[in-house]
Write a structure and sequence with these properties.
The complex is a heterotetramer, with two copies of chain A (147 residues) and two copies of chain C (77 residues). Chain A is of the alpha+beta class. Chain A has helices at 17-26, 62-79, 110-127; strands spanning 10-12, 35-42, 47-48, 51-60, 82-95, 99-107, 130-136, 141-143. Classes of the chains: A alpha+beta (147), C alpha+beta (77). β2 of chain A pairs antiparallel with β2 (35-42) of chain B, so a sheet runs across the interface.
Amino acid sequence: MSERKPRNIFVQGAIPASFIGESIAKHATNTKIGGHSIFLGQVRSDDIEGKKVSAIEYTTYEEMALQKMFEIREDIFAKYPLTCMHVYHSLGLVKEGEICLFVFTSSAHRKPAIDACTECVERIKAELPVWGKEIFEGEGYQWKTNS
Amino acid sequence: MSERKPRNIFVQGAIPASFIGESIAKHATNTKIGGHSIFLGQVRSDDIEGKKVSAIEYTTYEEMALQKMFEIREDIFAKYPLTCMHVYHSLGLVKEGEICLFVFTSSAHRKPAIDACTECVERIKAELPVWGKEIFEGEGYQWKTNS
Amino acid sequence: MATEVMFFGQLTEITGSSRLAVADVRDTDALKEKLFQDYPSLSAAKFRIAVNNKIINDNTLISEDSKIAFMPPFSGG
Amino acid sequence: MATEVMFFGQLTEITGSSRLAVADVRDTDALKEKLFQDYPSLSAAKFRIAVNNKIINDNTLISEDSKIAFMPPFSGG
């Protein structure tokens, strides 16, 4: 069983690809798992009216974000038969091509893992008090909006 | 653009978690990517009437499997605006807790990446001529069936 | 009585600060009215208010101990 | 004329081999009939036939050059 209490999801800067590999490796000991689903958000160098996004700077209202993430986690564990679920979100500066969000769900079967991962990503984007400031190459910025 | 010709998807034995981390890292240079979706199949040590699955031995009809995988890839690239898609499937013995399937899709936005990954996994399970022999701890085996 | 209010994201560009102390407001409607006077462009901004980490939709009583946050649309991930 | 036929998965336990040469069959119905005579339990097994890497559902003409595969239900992943 996974622990179910509020935990920190925020990491300073980008999430290294090697950390994701290590997280996957740790699950080899849980032989009741049959499928993992992973979503990774990567900073895209959008072109906005001729300006190129070179990084996103993330800020949060941490206390509320962690409480909300706890609620999302509880809801998802109640809804899907998951073995475990891990969420990491960057704060501070994340450069283009770097990973800013890592959602990782595991289950005995593929469908709950996939559905839980997708639902978690949607809820994170809609419900977590996190803001992204898109920093342009050269100078200037704009505030990110989620679709 | 990703290349679109038949390519090998089969690897001998388990897919190492470090390989998955390295695959993710390689995508940092493609700054048009905004989201990655990954599915990993892991060998589950099912209990079957008191016998425990300790490994799965995979075999394939390789020529047909690679041709079918090429068709699936073409269909999925036609249907979703993907940046790239990578598929790896184990052959031979994969022990409990090890990774036997790695499907990795990337797109500018999360939804095509997620939907393409899910569809690819479903089609691989339903359409690729691959067979798993579930090896029991001690002795005996049974042929895996896909739900 | 002074209530401390937190601002996030682009709202900090309107207030010039991520925290303000607002005197003599007993509910969120009074708080908004006061802030709109001091920062007129705040009234044109999109935001939601959280009181004690919960988003509120209706006028809500507040005290000195309330944790009050003005938050623009979320854009995490 | 002898046609080579491939067998996969649990079907190899019925045929005892992953490849068999079957003489004098000009279509897949004749091939099945011949194999069912030689390996009666094959007729009770679930399988699909591929000719030249395509699964066929109807009786199909075959030649010595045809790649013919008898495949039990797939269980990859």
